[in-house]
Design a protein that fits this description.
- The relative contact order is 0.08.
- The strands form three sheets. Strands 3-2-1-4-5-6 form a six-stranded parallel β-sheet, with helices on both faces. Strands 10-9-11-12-13 form a five-stranded parallel β-sheet.
- The chain starts with 6 loop residues before the first strand and ends with a strand.
- α4 (96-106) packs parallel to α5, α7 (200-231) packs across α9 and α7 packs across α10 (281-290).
- It has helices spanning 17-25, 37-44, 55-60, 96-106, 125-138, 176-187, 200-231, 235-242, 264-274, 281-290, 292-306, 334-343, 358-365, 388-391, 395-400, 418-423, and strands at residues 7-11, 30-33, 64-67, 76-81, 114-117, 147-150, 169-171, 194-196, 315-319, 348-352, 380-383, 408-411, 427-429.
- The chain is built from 16 helices and 13 strands.
- With 431 residues, it is α/β, with parallel strands linked by helices.
Amino acid sequence: MTIDGGTIAIIGLGYVGLPLAVEFGKQHKVIGFDIDAHRIARLREGHDATREVSADELAAARQLVFSDDPEQLLGCTTFIVTVPTPIDGVNRPDLTPLERASETVGRALKPGDLVVYESTVYPGCTEERCVPVLERVSGLRYNVDFFCGYSPERINPGDKVNTLTKIRKITSGSTPETAERVDALYRAIITAGTFMATSIRVAEAAKVIENTQRDLNIALINELSVIFERLGIDTIEVLEAAGSKWNFLPFRPGMVGGHCIGVDPYYLTHKAEEVGYNPQVILAGRRINDNMARYVARKVVQKMLRNNCPVIGSRVGVLGITFKENCPDIRNSKVIDLVAELRKWNVEVVVSDEWCDAAELRAETGLELGRIDEDHPVDALVVAVGHNEYRSMTPAALRAICRGDQPVIADVKSLYDRHALADAGFTVFRL
């Protein structure tokens, strides 16, 4: 089976939607739709602010057209929804973007059309929340006039090796025939192959547990890190020793943020509570990981006090504010929480990040990027993100941007040799 002759619409052109639109656009007519007019204008100019797709890759998608006009969706026959699914202030799923995208698709829906969702949701969300919106807006009947599929995104922002086409894709459909149609759609671009799930709900559940599993494993290592710090044992040295066993899982401690690992478990626990089950292990892991930014900030202050460094009015530098290395994405970055915690101690926090968009950071958080260099030194340093620019810095270069006799350095990502840092004059803390 091949892709049908109609135009494909990709709804949402972020980290997930844009690479998808580009791949399909190399061989098929595609409309890349987004409500952000500025984003559309920049993409037409060949510039992707997420840095996931290069100008040459955009140019290679010769059949891809960008638009913020819903009217241009009317001729499409396949709609793929890739909008974000965040959580609100009390960690409940916020389905507003998904429902609005469904309304947009519903206004363009025609008999025989296919709607595929890629946004991460809880099991049942596609058919319980999205399909009713499609039916209401379009006036059409599900599995009679139009059909749905679910194929969860597996994009890893900043990863230039494991890209879209090289990651096996889960597919599913609302009927057996639709499942085949969805699978054929993705087989056309995914060289790593596909895995057809038995139902949409199974595909939804598979996606949400992928990141829940990672979240829990990291939570375990984070808790071990807290224990080992109290015992005076270096966590990384313990993990390296344990890693000599062939089946030891190579997880590392860290501040878990971003749009997946720190969010997806709450979608599963929300659904679990809806059906009368109070999840304990999953939420315990979330509590541990959500508290790591506060823990790091307090350990920095504690070590500064032990070194007789006046904390109030001191200048603490933070290298990196994005949620992961070599990526400009600041969504749900726990470094932002770390900055807030440090400020509670009346510390002047200076944030530097070569990857972050200063205007976006200001608009989303109110934070400003600053300078940390030999002319603008700090009393303590937190290396929070493993950007290549920071990995390449030597202990001497790090020491040169710090003042005082024995400044504190928090090497959150364990980028450096801790003994070399100590030899350079640092008091070292790392998870």
